[in-house]
Amino acid sequence: MTLVQAQGLSKRFGDVQALDGFDLTVEPGQIVGLIGPNGSGKTTALKAILGLSRLDGGNIQAFGLDPFKQRPDLMRRTAYIADTGILPRWMRIRDLLAFVASVNPAFDRGRAEGALANTEIRPEKKVGTLSKGMTVQLHLAIVLAVNAELLVLDEPTLGLDILYRQRFYDALLNDYFAEQRAILVTTHEVREIEHILTQVVFIDRGRTRLHLGTEELAASFAKVVANAERSDALRAMNPLAERRSLRGREFIFQGANRQALAECGEVSTPSLPELFTAVMEERR
Questions:
Q1: Which of 139, 142, 227, 258 maximizes the CB count within 10 A of its CB?
Q2: Exposure letters 76-92 (e unless 16+ CB within 10 A, then b)
Q3: Which residues of the chain, if any, have pLDDT below 70?
């Protein structure tokens, strides 16, 4: 079963068109990165999928359910991390775990306690005394102890240093991800999720700019590094983007003949940040 199917989503806030015909599909076994600049519509799209925000138009189903009419059923199969700041700062850790267990039958308290045993977080501590990194560890331990088929993450590592970011995504891959589950993560920090994604969705101004599997990147896009003498020939091939680097001129192409490109310079597959920049600049 397709976990999420969204077609033609539209949403306006006053003069701002947050979603403008946005499409998204999430299948079991996928890690989908919804990537876009600030204000591109990422959070609005997630809230619509979770039934937290009504739409002006379009169709959306999650697990075959209407998110707005059947949200309780949807949330029994979904876990969501929006911002670790939402945890009640006045509660002690043991009381927080007891509360979650009382309201969510899919929560495995023993599993959460086992995950926290490997950290410096102690049951008697209050949430408000934890550092940003420890709060993320707590939130992650709780979420990963919920038997959810879809994990939705909205800028989950915002404000964390690089060490905690790496630990966060390592925990997702090792402790949560499985063939029957899926992860939908939004961020504008492209580099931090590049290594875990199976699907890439670029969103800008509420529209889907690109949607493809990460394995398709090499077949669809190419980067060429060339000297000034070959730059004019490459420009004639209509690159998506061009920029100067210490190695020479770098060009990004879509659907170009790699053999022809190789005659003008060194050909490789662009990184996700390079591709994101190229697509965003080309569509503006």
A1: 142
A2: ebbbbbbebeebeeeeb
A3: 83-85, 159, 282-284
